Amino acid sequence: FDRLRYVEVKHGRIAQLAFLGNIITRAGVHLPGDIDTAGTAFDSIPNGWAAVGAIPQAGLLQIVAFVGTLELFVMKDITGGEFVGDFRNGALDFGWDTFDEETKLTKRAVELNNGRAAMMGIL
């Protein structure tokens, strides 16, 4: 069960970022400048899945390499963490340790439900 919950939390977090990125770009907010040296502006990249075909190949390779690095070396579910999906790895806290156990359980349940909603929303 722990492995399934770990995967669910991780995919939920990624889906939340994807959903937020989709909403932001559809609202017309783009990074300033060019995406490559050929002069392709960030504004010229379309929304949604159409963006995958519009990004230069070198950019896609950089994205895949970055995600692979995160997957293999950074976003690891360490053994002995406080809970399944605890990616703090002893480095980040952001005040998590100041909450009581009931608040922690509530916040984890909210994150799990928001991740589930984002996974459905990004479809």
The value of Rg in angstroms is: 18 Å
Question: How many beta-strand elements?
Answer: 0
SS field, number of helical segments: 4
Roughly what percent helix? 55-70%
> What is the average per-residue confidence, as pLDDT, rounded to a whole number?
84
* Low-pLDDT sequence parts: none
* SSE pattern: HHHH
The percentage of residues in β strands lies in under 5%
Q: Sketch the major β-sheet.
A: none
* End-to-end distance: 25 Å
Shape: elongated
* Helix/strand/pairing category: mainly alpha
Overall description:
- The chain has about 120 residues and is an all-alpha fold.
- It contains 4 helices and no strands.
- It is elongated.
Layout of SSEs?
Layout: H1 2-26, H2 50-54, H3 57-74, H4 101-121
Keywords, separated by commas or semicolons:
single chain; 123 residues; mainly alpha
What's a quick, concise take on this entry?
This protein is mostly helical.
